[in-house]
Amino acid sequence: MTAHELAALLDSLRAGLADWFGADTRKKFVAAAEGLRELPDEGLKKIAERVRKGGAGDGVGGRAPGLVESIRAAQAGEPPPEAARSAVEKLTVKELDEVLKAFGQSASGKKPEKLARALALFTTGAGGPPSPPPAFDPAVVEEGVRIFTRLRDDRTLSINQVQAGFAPLRAYPRAVIEEISRRLEYTPNGSGKDIAERLWRNLEGIKASQYRSEMILTGT
User: Which of 50, 120, 157, 158 shows a CA-CA span of 20 to 30 A to 101?
Assistant: First the structure.
């Protein structure tokens, strides 16, 4: 099983068992799935071997990916381990750049400036005091949530139909797509385009898992 296949499986479990999971559990499933999609779509054993060898190669073995997930968990309300903050302080400039870019933050400036922005992500996700929530039309948000959940739950749709059905969400303003992402219990980071793309990747992973399950059940 690859990292992305496991992410799709977690999304399917979260969607299928939503009535039995509490909010905290659902958030942890979301964070885990998003973290797995940050990894290359390779077998888990291969990824583990690279990590054990000291982290060489293609963004997997370094410390940045794990810290990105610690920060995301903190932004979702889970207290970060003190070791995570200490680890951020030990990052190289290149690793700090990876962390900042993962949250749509500027990687400009010298190391102390980058470090300050990275540490601030644990509490605000934006390197500064929280800003007031943007205005959005609740009706448009509700319609977007309905579109996503219908595409997610309808197992009769082809991937082309799912892509076409998702297209309107890409045109929504950032404030709208951000709120849609929150209501679907995903963590919105980056530009509106980034948030929409992350929603699509999550939906695509869920549908891929559904298609594979259907093939196994029907023997096709």
Answer: 50
Which pTM value belongs to this model?
Answer: 0.46
| Residue 111 to residue 179: CA distance in whole angstroms | 33
With a CB cutoff of 8 Å and minimum separation 6, the contacts of 100 are 106, 107, 114, 117, 118, 121
DSSP 62: S
Residue spans per domain, the chain: 3-120, 138-218
Q: Compute the distance between CA of residue 125 and CA of residue 182 in angstroms, rounded to an integer.
A: 14
Distance in angstroms (rounded) separating the CA atoms of residues 220 and 213: 10
Dist. CA 11–CA 37, nearest whole Å: 11
DSSP secondary-structure letter at 61? S
The SS3 of residue 2 is strand
Residue 196 and residue 172 in contact, taking contact as beta carbons nearer than 8 Å: yes
In terms of Cα–Cα distance, which of 170, 169, 125, 173 is closest to 146?
169
Task: Tell me the backbone φ, ψ of residue 55, rounded to 5 degrees.
Answer: 90, 20
191 sits in the region (left: phi over 0; alpha: psi -120 to 50; else beta) called: beta
Hey, what are 160's tokens?
A: 């082309």
Helix (H) or strand (E) holding 149: helix 138-153
CA atoms within 13 A on the CB side of 49: 5
- How far apart CA 206 and CA 202 sit, in angstroms, is 6
